[in-house]
């Protein structure tokens, strides 16, 4: 991710710019930040994870979105593009363009060496300000590992680490589970990192 040098933009100016752009940009405090493309492994993980969730949610009032669905952190006026977003119940959208979701239930980010610190720290702190958010998942690319943060009844985020292809992540907020074997179905690891 690279900040684009430009004068500070209002949210309205950002949305007008973004809707005409061929490249995705996040928006933070008036600045637009260009997003880098994803590698093969990232794309395989994203597609298999989204497909697994979409199949489990079939016939329910839930929707699974890939990284083209923008999410707004309303309390901060930040716009971002999670790798996968799930909403259960009616989707609340910012405007008639229907390209900015306001009420995600689950957000999933696929970690890369350049974004993992941001995804674990600052981005997660920002996402916690979304009232509807119940689960936040961080999926590693280099080994079969998912970090799961679930919002508890006491409004605290409870961390759980799932490692190895025999593990599964329970997403109680949407009544689904993610088997790591499915998430990493097409990804090949060396024998030491796969166990």
Q: Report Rg.
A: 17 Å
Helix/strand structural class: alpha+beta
What is the arithmetic mean of pLDDT? Answer: 93
Helix content: 10-25%
Separation of termini? 32 Å
Report the uncertain regions.
Answer: none
Instruction: Please provide the count of β strands.
Output: 14
Instruction: Please report the number of helical segments.
Output: 6
Major sheet description: 6 strands, mixed
| Global outline | globular
Work out the strand percent: 25-35%
The main sheet orders its strands as: 4-7-9-10-11-12
N-to-C SSE string, H for helix and E for strand:
EHEEHEEEEEEHHEEEEEHH
Summarize the structure.
The chain has helices at 11-20, 40-56, 116-120, 122-127, 180-183, 191-194; strands at residues 2-3, 25-28, 31-34, 62-65, 70-73, 78-80, 84-88, 100-101, 106-110, 135-139, 145-151, 157-163, 168-171, 176-179. With 195 residues, the protein is of the alpha+beta class.
Describe the fold and architecture.
- This protein has 195 residues and is α+β, with helices and mostly antiparallel strands.
- Helices cover 24% and strands 31% of the residues.
- The chain is built from six helices and 14 strands.
- The chain has helices at residues 11-20, 40-56, 116-120, 122-127, 180-183, 191-194; strands spanning 2-3, 25-28, 31-34, 62-65, 70-73, 78-80, 84-88, 100-101, 106-110, 135-139, 145-151, 157-163, 168-171, 176-179.
- The protein has a six-stranded mixed sheet with strand order 4-7-9-10-11-12. The protein has a three-stranded antiparallel sheet with strand order 1-3-2, with helices on one face.
- It is globular and about 50 Å long.
- The mean pLDDT is 93.
């Amino acid at each position: 991710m690279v900040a684009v040098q430009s004068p500070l933009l209002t949210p309205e100016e950002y949305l007008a710019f973004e809707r005409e752009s061929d490249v995705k940009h996040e928006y933070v405090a008036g600045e637009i930040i260009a997003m880098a493309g994803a590698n093969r492994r990232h794309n395989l993980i994203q597609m298999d994870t989204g497909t697994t969730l979409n199949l489990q949610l079939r016939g329910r009032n839930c929707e699974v979105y890939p990284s083209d669905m923008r999410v707004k952190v309303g309390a901060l006026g930040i716009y971002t593009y999670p790798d996968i977003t799930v909403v259960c119940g009616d989707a609340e959208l910012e405007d008639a363009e229907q390209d900015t979701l306001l009420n995600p239930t689950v957000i999933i980010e696929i970690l890369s060496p350049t974004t993992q610190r941001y995804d674990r720290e600052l981005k997660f702190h920002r996402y916690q300000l979304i009232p509807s958010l119940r689960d936040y998942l961080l999926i590693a690319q280099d080994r079969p590992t998912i970090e799961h943060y679930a919002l508890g009844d006491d409004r605290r985020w409870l961390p759980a680490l799932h490692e190895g292809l025999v593990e599964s992540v329970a997403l109680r907020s949407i009544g689904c589970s993610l088997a790591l074997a499915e998430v990493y179905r097409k990804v090949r690891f060396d024998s030491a990192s796969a166990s």
